[in-house]
Design brief:
homodimer; four-stranded parallel beta sheet; globular
């Protein structure tokens, strides 16, 4: 007895990550009952984003032009190429204000269980980008999760084979971290990768 | 440096209940990167639902016509009117297959802290509906939360003053429930409201 347009909305909301049938229903009622303005705005924002956003030819992140602003900026150091999983990671590195090179955004990570292999991640586009003669070092900044580490390892193998210098963000105890509250895996790594002073 | 269309999409997603900045960002990337079809479908479903859905003139639930199918069904018992908070509650009662009366859906509950008073809940529409001479009993089936109980109490006062017979779903130990695993508040209520056999 639910109207078909309401059924379809509840079903369509389930394409959002982490949204099951119960929350999709709650979201649909909320939008229709309490926030029709927000719902209209969301519909327009979705259509507009789908229409105008594409991947930067160089760094693969979302942009509205062929080359994103960052890649087109001549004041960035084109000899450094930092590889991250998602635009959110790029934003975090930018916030440190300690990196002035360029980026390549994978838009994901290798995840065989989810069917994401080297082909799905379009690693050939990354290799083409990293083969630019201006690049002297590739910095791997994928996450330090199992999947992120596996992705970094695969990319390092591919790029090293092409004679590129490849580095990885360091692992260790977080700045301000107390050993007592750091997990033993991190402490073990910090021991193995200790720096001579 | 985020494209404005992406910024706007992330911002628009925050109108969904329980979605903060981080999950809005995750949802936007997911839709654009992994599920553009789902995103297009969601945009269309939202626009369509906003265009065609309205409130049933009689029971206040969402419908695409003036009177919903259930209210228009002559085989339902028009002498019973069951008041619920949301369409999901109505669906639960229908699933019991033990009620054949009509419904009134409040589309919310009294919640002074969220600015939802009798006016926002349009209780005058409910009073008009319950004043239909065909109605002989109004069953309050709002939730047994603080807000649901307060809503039931307010509605009971309003309708009793108009000479209507008002009842409330019984409270007590759930069917199949073990006292050892039932909260003491429920057991206390079950004692107070004990039934003579």
């Amino acid at each position: 007895m639910t109207p078909s347009s309401l059924d379809e909305l509840i079903d369509a909301l389930r394409c959002l990550p982490g949204v099951g049938p119960k929350s999709a229903q709650r979201m649909a009622y909320h939008l229709l009952q309490r926030d029709q303005r927000g719902a209209g705005r969301l519909a327009r924002a979705l259509s507009h984003a789908l229409a105008v956003l594409r991947h930067c030819e160089r760094c693969n992140t979302f942009t509205e032009s062929e080359i994103c602003e960052r890649c087109a900026n001549p004041r960035r150091d084109a000899s450094l190429l930092c590889i991250v999983e998602m635009p959110a990671d790029l934003a975090m590195i930018e916030q440190t204000q300690s990196y002035n090179g360029l980026y390549y955004v994978l838009m994901g990570r290798l995840s065989p269980l989810d069917g994401v292999g080297p082909r799905e991640l379009k690693l050939d586009k990354l290799i083409a980008r990293a083969s630019d003669p201006a690049v002297t070092e590739v910095i791997l900044a994928t996450n330090f999760t199992n999947e992120g580490e596996a992705t970094a390892h695969t990319i390092a193998t591919l790029l090293s084979a092409r004679g590129l210098k490849v580095s990885r963000l360091s692992r260790g105890v977080p700045v301000g971290g107390e050993l007592e509250h750091t997990d033993t895996g991190t402490i073990a790594q910090a021991l193995v990768e200790r720096r001579s002073l």
